[in-house]
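User: I've been going back and forth on whether these two constructs are worth ordering. Before I decide, could you fold them both?

Assistant: Sure. I'll take them in the order you sent them. The first construct and its structure tokens:
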Amino acid sequence: MNNFQEPSKGAFIRLLNLFPLRSLKAQWPEERGSKEDISISVLNSLSISNIDDFILSHFGSCKQHIYVLAHNEHVKSFPDINFSFAQKISKASNEKHIEILFLANQEYNVLLKNPWSEETLDFLWPIKIDVYEKYLTIKFVTLEKKISSYIGGETHFVTDKSLSERGIINALLNHFKEGSYPEVLDLHAGVKHLWDDDLVDSIRVNYKKSLSKASEAMDPDITLKQSDPDLYAVVSESPLYKTLLKNTGFDITGEVFSVDPG
């Protein structure tokens, strides 16, 4: 059963506001003004059926939470993935890769303080799944943490969210037979391999010492391994937590990204 609900105009505006201004201007070069100005201007031309090109073209420009899972399925016979809470708006596949884009209905229940009242904010949440031999990625565009920006800065409390990343991952796992569930991978080895090969370097690191946790934040334009090899030697042998990395030679979108393999 598909419980996906037709989004409101506000949900479309909030969706476009997840993307940087440069993405909106690249998609609609004739438009001028702020993100909100452009969003309102193009609103009447948007629908679930025609938004996929914009999202796919500019997905890499958004902040994301990315999970990597190992699996034992062949790409050709990979289970068809559908969610009751999301609309599948794009799917492309070949023998080596499947790319699926979903828009999920995410609702925030918000309690406003002055005066006391309750409001529901609906979001269109972009989620992208890429399937390869032996592993898959599930990428969540990060929704705006400051809900106050959507309610005029009013004092508020978020009392409930309809969806969570962990819940969606569990819904994905339900597509597989018992005993063949994909496993969420430990990213320590992968991150450290890239770091050891000088493809990334850290500008802020959190790591585990023998009896405590420690953190290092580098000065502007300074990276840890380049400037302090002795400290890098310690960190490279330690469990990592939320760490900010600078791309120094890796073929990915974006100059800086964070990882939390702990």
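The second construct, handled the same way:
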Amino acid sequence: MLARRPVQVGLLVFVLALLLSIVLAPDTNVPTSDWVRLVTIGVLAAAAVLLFASASEADRDESVRRNQLLGAGVAAALAIILCLTFSLGTAIVFSIGVSLVTAIAGTNPDRRSPWALTGVLLVTVPAWVWSALDAWTWGLLLLVPICLIGVVSDGHLRAAQALSPTVTSALTSRGHRLAGWLGVLVAALLVVIAGVPADNASGVVALGAAGALILVAIDMYADQRGARLLQVSLVDTAVLWIIVCWIVSL
């Protein structure tokens, strides 16, 4: 399970999202006790998701599957109990997030792009942590369309790479690449429009949009040079950069 790239990417994104969400929580000085509780909840959540995903594999022995499902249930229950020490709302947000992550992680992890899992983590982890720290802001909701755009753009770039000349498709390889680039530009435009009223955050928002535009320009240049293996990673990095800058701006 841990040897699979989508799982490794998911764990890395989860750890980074958790730490950044705690550090960047607005107007909050997080005490050590909250750090310990949040990190413990994170460990329990990761264990629950991994155990459930492992139990979902077809080649699992029935007794092993039962033990893994039991372990996943216990870990999830302990995590929810710890969330209740913050608030009921925190427990609800956490439960929704874990359910979504588990549903994605448990379905064909070998063939699935890690972007779907990454997108859900980047939305749910800050929402859960900031609700626990009473630092919730409606600006977090902008992460939903941005992450959806990231998933769609990633899919277009992967489709462009995988498209065979002998296969009939509604979009050509060039069309898929253009759609992926356009998605990044739309995400950059969204954060610029949303960040205009917040003068104190406009610099960070502008940095996020400018960085994304630069990465798209590099991606287009790489396409002209035939270096298409770079495209997915550059587009994903551009969307991730927009997300990080937006969270920092909040």
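Notes on the second construct follow. The chain has a mean pLDDT of 79. Residues 137-250 form one domain.
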